């Protein structure tokens, strides 16, 4: 049975939800599932914008056929070739020998590499090209590295709909809802949206900024992404988040306290630091155990908050491996412009603190590391309390 939603008078959502997939890109947990969005425009010509992941192909095909209700499918616009959106191209073309695929040169190259057979039925477009489907005229805008090199977005100049590919997407199955105003986005969706952006596109801030600058020049009324909700009002809210995330500016003043602890002593010290911060009035404090928090959540929180405290045991003269992994991911995703503080622990040769400091100074950009490291010798005692109190003062002062 088909399951579609009307987006505008002649545009339909024909996507599908996947509740079974546990790891997006086989790496990021998605406990709330994910949606694969595609859209059909019924103009003088009919147009399908993108396809869907193989896992939901059957539902997707039923949806497309239901909306077409017997009409031919004239065009398939592919904004992004990543298989979670493009895997069903061949299925569409098999069912619709009349369909012409519209995309760009790099996209067609990737389609050939993945074996998405288009059999010479294609029309190549580039930045700024215009195409009319009858009442609707669209223009194609290159969006390289948002989030692959071939990515483009398609803007319908007739009604202001932006088909934004992976930009403005979010994790989470949409379950009947489609529009941002059908949910409490700021309460129930922003964390998934942030975790999606920061882990999937976070590395490419400058490319996102470039796209946002181009977007600022056009009158966007609605955003139709390839995952998550369609934005039809309050676009500024989400744009503002994208501006912050892509420029690596924190959303909030607050402290992210990530700790690595085997026997609980470093955790206990981290708790004391959190308590002292709260007592001094900094209540926006969040503690995470690096060993049992998926890295995608840590990265998301790192983008959200202004300050990070690294509290780590020493492990074989090195940084605790899971903490090291977190630092490596911060580097990979280009995280910048944060203030950091360090608590280290060791029982005979404590090196974690200086190694973390060197990593932050040498491998990342724009990280201010507060001067004093709190050093613990196995467990926190009152002897270290003054240095912890100094750290609390430094953190709070650095927020002014
Ligand atoms: C496998 C392993 C390697 C360790 N390597 C070091 C080390 O190189 N230098 C050091 O000072 N302590 C080392 N330690 C000791 C811990 O860092 C230390 O006991 C720390 O206080 C544990 O704090 P926790 O209670 O938060 O786990 C090691 C411990 C383990 C289990």
TrEMBL record:
One Pfam short name: ODP
InterPro entries, A to Z: Flavodoxin/NO_synth, Flavodoxin_CS, Flavoprotein-like_sf, Metallo-B-lactamas, NADH_oxidoreductase_modular, ODP_dom, RibonucZ/Hydroxyglut_hydro, Rubredoxin-O_OxRdtase
Residues annotated as domain Flavodoxin-like: 255-396
Cofactor: Fe cation
Keyword Transport: yes
Keywords: Electron transport, Transport
Homology family: In the N-terminal section; belongs to the zinc metallo-hydrolase group 3 family.
Name of the molecule in the record: Flavorubredoxin
Organism lineage string: Bacteria, Bacillati, Bacillota, Negativicutes, Veillonellales
């Amino acid at each position: 049975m088909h399951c579609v939603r009307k987006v505008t008078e002649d545009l339909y959502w024909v996507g599908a939800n996947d509740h079974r997939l546990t790891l997006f890109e086989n790496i990021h947990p998605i406990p709330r599932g994910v949606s694969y969005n595609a859209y059909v425009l019924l103009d003088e010509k009919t147009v399908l914008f993108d396809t869907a992941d193989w896992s939901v192909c059957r539902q997707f095909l039923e949806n497309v056929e239901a909306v077409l209700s017997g009409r031919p499918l004239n065009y398939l616009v592919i904004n992004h070739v990543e298989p979670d959106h493009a895997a069903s191209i061949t299925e569409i073309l098999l069912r619709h020998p009349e369909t012409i695929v519209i995309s760009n040169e790099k996209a067609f190259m990737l389609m050939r590499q993945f074996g998405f057979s288009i059999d010479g039925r294609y029309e190549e477009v580039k930045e700024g090209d215009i195409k009319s489907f009858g009442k609707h005229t669209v223009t194609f805008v290159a969006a390289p590295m948002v989030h692959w090199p071939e990515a483009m977005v398609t803007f319908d100049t007739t009604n202001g709909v932006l088909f934004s590919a992976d930009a403005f997407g979010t994790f989470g199955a949409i379950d009947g809802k489609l529009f941002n105003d059908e949910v409490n986005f700021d309460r129930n969706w922003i964390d998934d949206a942030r975790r999606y952006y920061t882990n999937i596109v976070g590395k490419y801030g400058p490319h996102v900024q470039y796209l946002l600058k181009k977007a600022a020049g056009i009158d966007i009324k609605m955003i139709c992404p390839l995952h998550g909700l369609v934005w039809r009002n309050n676009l500024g809210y989400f744009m503002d988040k994208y501006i912050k995330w892509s420029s690596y500016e924190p959303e909030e003043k607050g402290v992210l306290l990530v700790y690595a602890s085997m026997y609980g002593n470093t955790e206990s010290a981290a708790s004391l630091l959190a308590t002292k911060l709260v007592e001094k009035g900094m209540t926006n404090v969040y503690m995470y155990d690096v060993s049992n928090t998926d890295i995608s959540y840590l990265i998301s929180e790192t983008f959200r908050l202004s300050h990070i405290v690294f509290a780590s045991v020493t492990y074989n003269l090195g940084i605790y491996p899971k903490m090291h992994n977190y630092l490596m991911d911060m580097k990979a995703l280009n995280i910048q412009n944060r203030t950091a503080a360090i608590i280290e622990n060791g029982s005979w040769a404590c090196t974690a603190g200086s190694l973390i400091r060197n990593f932050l100074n040498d491998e990342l950009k724009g990280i201010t590391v507060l001067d004093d490291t709190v050093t613990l010798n196995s467990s926190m005692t009152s002897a270290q309390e003054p240095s912890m109190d100094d750290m609390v003062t430094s953190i709070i002062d650095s927020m002014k």
